[in-house]
Amino acid sequence: MENPLAHFPQPELVDQPSAPVLASSNVPPLASPLPHSLPSRPPESFMHKNRLQEFTQRSSIQLPVYQTVNEGSVHAPQFRSSVLVDGVTYTSETTFSNRKAAEQDLAKHALECISKKLKDEGCPLIREDTVFCKSILNEFVVKMNLELPTYNTSQSGGVLPLFVSTLVFNGATYRGETGRNKKEAEQLAARVVIQSLLADDRYGTVVSEIIKSKAKLYDALNKAKDSSFDATLAGANRLNHNNTEVENNAVTNHVPNTTHPSSGAKHLRHEFKISKSGEGR
Fold first, then answer.
1. Most buried residue, 15, 99, 174, 278, by CB count within 10 Å?
2. Same structural domain for residues 117 and 137?
3. In a domain, 264, yes or no
């Protein structure tokens, strides 16, 4: 059967407009496609020389000076390196067939030795006195671009009140030892965080450098205190000496003058009279 609609003219097909695109400032532009290969980060074993150089730059000391010698042959090289850092020479314990590997391993060894030295120098400061603990932690936070720590201090009742402070730092909570006042309790809480950072290989060197800088200030303050104490003690001694002289002068003024027998002056003799009632006896 013939289609009755076949004789009717068919409408011409035209390109239909696509759906309108809504302009919106909230839609970010499409990012360019990522390249197939991104520059990879150097392996960890090739970063030690860079870190040692950064340490010397931060510490404002001379850059490391390397010396590498071949203890083997030309066909079977055995390289051993030594490096001079801040007046101390570090030598690699083993040899390597590659010069770069020897220097990288040596830089790692030097960093470990320096880190241990800094920790040993800094730990007595925060153990003996907590006056700089909050300052050390705040400086570390600024250097690492972290959020400042928050303190919460509570007081316990009793004849002698005690204070305990808890500290929130980098998402973790730390609790310090008891202190005699709020300020000391917060310093003790900051010390707990510092000790934790020193035990971390990632941050130990940075914290040790900060402690070392504070140690110099701590020594200067102690010298100032000692000088002030010596001046106070000297002033007290002078005052005591002056008071003694005044007392001696006062005693001398109240004692009658007497001439020493060796001076040749005649002594006055006192005559004792005997009553007549006793003469006939």
1. 174
2. no
3. no
- Residue numbers of the domain that contains 175: 129-230
Q: How many domains does the chain have?
A: 2
pLDDT tens digits, one per residue of 69-98:
999 999 999 999 999 998 999 999 899 999
- Ordered DSSP codes for the chain: ---GGGGSPPPPP-PPPPPPPPP-TTSPPPPPPPPSSPPPPPPGGGSHHHHHHHHHHHTT-PPPEEEEEE-S-SSS--EEEEEEETTEEEE-SS-BSSHHHHHHHHHHHHHHHHHHHHHHHHHHHHHH--TTHHHHHHHHHHHHT-PPPEEEEEEE-SSS-EEEEEEEETTEEEE---BSSHHHHHHHHHHHHHHHHHT-TTTHHHHHHHHHHHHHHHHHHHHHHHHHHHHHHHHHHHHHHHHHHHHHHHHHHHSPP---GGG-PPPPPPPPPPPGGGT--
Residue 78 lies in a domain: yes
The CATH number that applies at residue 56 is 3.30.160.20
What's the predicted TM-score (pTM) here? 0.47
